[in-house]
Amino acid sequence: MRSGTLGARLLGLVAASTLWPTASEATYSPPLTRVRIDADRVTHSPELVLAMDRRDEGVFLADARVLGGQYLLQLEWASGFGLQVGAALAQASVDVTVGPTTFEGQGTMFLGGQVRGYAMVWSSPASGRAHALTAFVNVRAAHYFAPDGHLSSTVVSGGVGAMAELVLGQYLSVCPYAWLTPGLYSAYAFRADGPSGPIEREKSVGPGLRTPLQVGLDVWLYPLGSGSEEHVSLSVIASLIDTSAQGSRSVSGVVGWTF
Hints:
Blueprint: H1 6-19, E1 41-56, E2 61-76, E3 81-98, E4 101-123, E5 132-145, E6 151-169, E7 172-180, E8 183-194, E9 197-205, E10 213-221, E11 231-239, E12 249-258
Antiparallel strand pairs: 1-2, 1-12, 2-3, 3-4, 4-5, 5-6, 6-7, 6-8, 7-10, 8-9, 10-11, 11-12
């Protein structure tokens, strides 16, 4: 692929992402389930996710543990472009600390969704599976809620980044990635009966770069060898930088099957 087309493709993807109406911070998924985009293809990826997510909002501190499932659909074209949509549903345990008091919350639900556009910007000339680099943009959303109404949290973020596939043999690839994740909107609300009476905390925040970067590494195992694109993915994704110095962070592990 000619390098001169990279700027035009990225510009087009960014413009398309800003026009998406109500796209959905996100599923805790890795960016892509395929990196070399060179054929018309539809791929499906059911995944199991385990995540630890800490948000320090000043007015309260929330520690979430998430376990659930998610599904990614990728539509790809031989021209090198692709579109991914994803959704997640999980159960979460969220402990909220307000001042000296910690409230242990069970039974909280997590809903997530995302839309991601991408374009392959380089691949090695080898036929079949080969090294490749793909850039992407996305809009993501995440929502935590407790059925009894004591906790609600919504986060919407954008993103732009890249993912590489480094082929180590017919059965194994390693895929590093990173993306910039500007926050677009977030809102938090917490209500509970405290030792000295009712406690209510609310906060909403507009665009910013509070947690600006996510990085990760996938290991893809191809049990059927180089003749098949079906693979098992083992992923670790982390967001460890908090520009507000309040210590918010997120670490997740994902196991998936792409076919």
